[in-house]
Amino acid sequence: MSETTRITTLDGDKDFMAYVAQPEGEPRAAIVVIQEIFGVNAGIRRKCDLLAEAGYLAVAPDLFWQLGEGIELDPDIEPEFQKALDLMGKFDQDEGVRDIEATIKWARQKSGKKVGAVGYCLGGRLAYMTAARTDADASVGYYAVGVDGLLREKHAISNPLMLHIPTEDGFVDKETQKAMHEGLDDHPKVTLHDYEGMDHGFATQFGKRRNEENAQLADKRTMAFFAENLG
After folding, report:
1. Residues 19-53: pLDDT tens digits?
2. Residues 155-179, mean pLDDT to the nearest whole number
3. Residue 85, CB half-sphere, CA atoms under 13 Å: how many?
4. What is the pLDDT of residue 1?
5. Keywords on this record (predicted)?
6. Are 59 and 20 in contact (CB under 8 A)?
7. Which end of the chain is more exposed for a tag (fewer CB within 10 A), N or C?
C-alpha cells in the first residue's frame, strides 16, 4: 500500500511531502529512500514499493520542496536532465540532510524499528552525509558524487555504510574513485563495491541507464546489508 504524507521539519515550523510504501503486516524495519537529482519520480517510488514488498516501511522525502514541491523529471529527456542539473546547483545539501534526519525521526516513530537509508546519485552523496551526520542505523549510496570532498567527515561514521561505485562513472572520475578507496577502505564501518565498466545510474529502476546484471548484483548486496544491519 502506498500513500503520500507530510513530514515536519526539524525546526518544527514547516513540513514537506513524502511518498510512503507500507509493507503487509508489521515492518521489519524502515528505510529512507533518497532521491536522485530528478525528484521523487516513478523510479524512486518503485524503489520504495520493492522495499515494501521485502517487508520494509519505505519513505522517500521530497528533498527539492524548497525549490518547488512535487518535482518529477525524466533523465532520458534531455531538457529535463538539464533542468535536474540546474536544480542540483541550487539545492542546499546541508538542509537536505536535515530533512533526511527529520524523515528518519518520522520513520522511527512510525515503525518502532531501526531505520536505514539508501540513496542514488545526489542521494548517494546524501547517504554518505547521512551516515556521518545522523543516527541512521545503516546507509547505502549508489554512485555517490563528490565523496572525496567529504572524507573529513568519515570519523563521524559510526554505523555501517555501503557504497556502490561504477568504475566508468561520468560524474566521478578515476582520481575521485581512488581517493574514496584510499580514504575509506580501512574504515571499519564502510564497505565499497566496484562495478567494472559501469556508468553512473546503472541501477536506476527505469530507463536507458540501467544495466540489468549489475543492478541486480548491487541490489542483492544492498538487501543482504539491510537484512544484516536492520533486520
Report:
1. 999 999 999 999 999 999 999 999 999 999 999 99
2. 98
3. 7
4. 83
5. Hydrolase
6. yes
7. N
Q: Is 173 left (phi over 0), alpha (psi -120 to 50) or beta?
A: beta
Q: SS3 for 73?
A: coil
For residue 90, give the C-alpha cell: 541550487
* Catalytic-role residue among 99, 137, 169, 219: 169
169 is catalytic: yes
Average pLDDT score, the chain: 97
HEC-encoded secondary structure of the chain: CEEEEEEECCCCCCEEEEEEECCCCCCCCEEEEECECCECCHHHHHHHHHHHHCCCEEEEECCCCCCCCCCECCCCCHHHHHHHHHHHHHCCHHHHHHHHHHHHHHHHHHHCCCEEEEEECHHHHHHHHHHHHCCCCEEEEECCCCHHHHHHHHHHCCCCEEEEEECCCCCCCHHHHHHHHHHHCCCCCEEEEEECCCCCCCCCCCCCCCCHHHHHHHHHHHHHHHHHHCC
Distance CA 19, CA 60 (A): 5
- Residue 143: predicted pLDDT: 98
CB 177 within 8 A of CB 151: no
> Active site includes 15?
no
